[in-house]
What does this fold into?
Amino acid sequence: MSAWLKSIFAAIFGSNSEIATFIISMIPIVELRGAIPFGSAVSFWGENALPLWESFLIALAGSSLVCVILTFAFQPLFNWLKRTKAFKRLAEWVEKKLKKNSQNIDSKTETETNEKKVLWLKLVGVFCFVAIPLPLTGVWTGTCLALFIGLSRKQTMLTVLLGNAVAGGLMMLISYFFEDNTAIVLYAFLILVVAFILFEVVKSLIVRNKNKKLAVNEKANIEESSTIEANETSQANTKKDN
It folds into this structure.
């Protein structure tokens, strides 16, 4: 499999592992977490494989650029998506996921009245969210989440970039133990990504079916209540007439 991927990367990027690492680090889900082991994988790049520290710096630069761009573009882009027919459902899905993720942070701040403490809890929450090198908790999601819970652009960039640097450091440390073949780390991360996505899809289907059943049961209960009420009214009218 490594040979097959190596031929694809060679066809696209040639021997430019630096450019490839920079671009890969900007792709959603994969981001810096996948780009670090990718750029340093000897099985992909051979003698053009990057040292771990260089792969880390290049991946950090690419993913950080995404954070800066997204900080300014998220709200206008999101509002535009919500107005379009083609992407309205996508925007609603993103909004739903962001609301769900923000509940964990909001639940810790809703009992606080001190504005500085509330802000601090939000900053720490976003930082920890991004710093843990798991799928779907990277720069893309972290930046949108930070803006969604009301952090300013400056606060968003500072918090997300720091968390991203920590996540990159952890990925570099993990890759260090597989320095001879960091592609293993990349494969493991991609498997984890697929598992997360499948879990979300299955969970969404289960919730949807559950909601459908609840809606059907609720409709049946309403109809049954209406029937009972109609019968009681009819019986009452019959007794009145008698």
